[in-house]
Amino acid sequence: MNESASSAHADKADGGEQIGALPRPWGFWSTIAWALAALAVAAVAAVGGVAWRNGARFDLILGLQDAASLSLQVIASNIVLILMLAFAARLSGWPVARYLGLVAPRAHDLLYGAGVIALSVGAFEILNYLLGRESVTAFQTDSYRAAQAAGLLPVMWLAFVVAAPVGEEITFRGFLFRGLAASRLGVSGAILLSALTFAALHAQYDWFEVLQVFWIGALFGWLRWRSGSTTLTILLHMATNFLATLLTAAKVHGLA
Known about the structure:
With 256 residues, this protein is an all-alpha fold. It is built from 9 helices and 2 strands. It has helices at residues 28-53, 67-91, 96-99, 107-131, 138-149, 153-181, 186-200, 207-227, 230-252, and strands at residues 10-11, 17-18. The chain has a two-stranded antiparallel sheet.
């Protein structure tokens, strides 16, 4: 059961909006427990599904040798993640979409968010250039080439441009943010902790790339609070991943 009683309250995750008779969101520890459980079950589902596809050849499960395995892991794990967190949101006594912030963003929030993310991505591109770093990582090019060789580029695009942004935003800016912002951490703590966790799960990158992920995650958290819409951050995340995948394709094909 939700650890907080039902009462009228201001929802910190949505800029102090009065929720009325809805229960308070899951508390800090319940939010963390649900998120960890969902991530664990999603990981098991991803590994199990790929093991089944490959006839239990576990050497293919975590590697890039099988392009479909990586994309299927992303798709399967995020579907399970979304279902589990939607179930947890429903158990809290809230409408699922409302709890997860799945509301249509206002036009000015969409334009503002797009501008903020574009400026940040542009700044990081300039910094990469000044530091002599590649904008596209080896992980991205290796994944793309593997998918291309296997004839599975559409599956890879679906995984990284649709499945991953939807699942990650519902997890970090939807479920986690809702519970953490209503706890003693408040909005600032929720933005920081969700961004740190988001960055920590991108261990395939080096420290500088993880720092970029953290910054983008923090911006997504702030935009989530400012707009009250996780749908906004899903759209921005999809656009960011689309651009990254497009740049990867350009590099692999010798166009950049």
